[in-house]
Specification:
Blueprint (H helix, E strand, L loop, with lengths): L1 E10 L3 E8 L4 E8 L2 H10 L2 E9 L4 H8 L5 E5 L5 H4 L6 H14 L11 H33 L16 H5 L5 H32 L4 H6 L6 H11 L11 H4 L4 E2 L6 E2 L1
Parallel strand pairs: 1-4, 4-5
Antiparallel strand pairs: 1-2, 2-3, 6-7
Helix pairs in contact: 5-7, 5-9
Length: about 270
């Protein structure tokens, strides 16, 4: 039984690699297994350590992994992969090598944490905000595409929003030089209408889930901060100080304290 272990998890949709390192930097184990909640828990729980610190890089899987494994380790750190140049720019690129490097960087305290809420309602709210922002961006891209297609036909007086309204589309479509061009624009208009409806539904979902968080009303009192900005700010910045949540220990004190001895850190 080890007193302290540092675990690095290289996670993918089909397979994961888990590496474990002790306080002196000696590699204890590396294991590969299929990605599922049961196998993740089984492999992490089976590693013999009194204190187990786990690091996993930020990804679509990271929040789920952190939530699943949090009860089975002393602390989970979801880390930002961009500063991890020892992994992303290291010589050999291999899942086993990456997992070992990840637990080594964790042991040395050189990882930058990315916060993931422990509360499902916060996760749901952030996903709803992200969905709305994606839908809004798709809607804006379609508008730009419609204008550009008209401009390719020499119709340049499409700078306002009139060209998107159902009442005035017809007069712009009549000015197109070919039936094929009109058919293309009609398809784009159909997509614009569909995306507009999705945007409304996404906005309604975001606002409904946002009713739980009183700081959104406070944000909207700030000049220049509208409904969307207030919800987005709450979704992305909420974990530390804004909503009264207890600051997670991985942010307060990401790793055990450094020791002057050969043990780089001590819990």
């Amino acid at each position: 039984m080890y007193k302290t272990l540092y675990l690095g998890l290289d996670a993918h949709t089909r397979n994961c690699v888990l590496a474990a390192m002790d306080r002196t930097g000696e590699l204890v184990s590396t294991e590969a297994f299929s990605t599922s909640e049961s196998t993740l828990i089984a492999h992490v729980a089976a590693i013999p350590g009194n204190a187990k610190y786990l690091a996993v890089e930020e990804s679509p899987l990271a929040g789920w992994i952190a939530s699943a494994l949090r009860p089975y380790v002393t602390e989970v750190m979801v880390c930002d992969p961009l500063p991890n140049t020892r992994i992303s720019r290291g010589g050999n690129k291999d899942d086993f090598i990456d997992a070992v490097k990840l637990c080594r960087l964790l042991r040395l305290g050189e990882l930058k944490p990315v916060y993931h809420s422990e509360h499902d309602h916060r996760v749901d709210f952030k996903i709803a905000v992200q969905q709305y922002l994606r839908t809004r961006n798709d809607h804006a891209k379609l508008k730009n595409q419609i204008k550009a297609t008209f401009q390719q036909a020499g119709i340049v007086d499409v700078t306002g929003s009139e060209v998107f309204t159902k009442a005035h589309r017809g007069k712009y479509l009549k000015r197109l030089p070919t039936n094929a061009r009109r058919m293309i624009l009609e398809h784009l208009y159909d997509r614009l209408d569909q995306t507009g409806e999705l945007r409304k539904k996404a906005c309604a979902t975001m606002e409904e889930l946002g009713k739980r968080y009183p700081e959104i009303t406070q944000f909207q009192r700030v000049p220049g901060i509208g409904t969307v900005g207030a919800h987005a700010f709450s979704a992305y910045v909420q974990p530390l100080y804004l909503v009264g949540d207890v600051m997670p220990s991985v942010i307060r004190n990401p790793m055990p304290k450094r020791n002057a001895s050969t043990e780089r850190f001590r819990p």
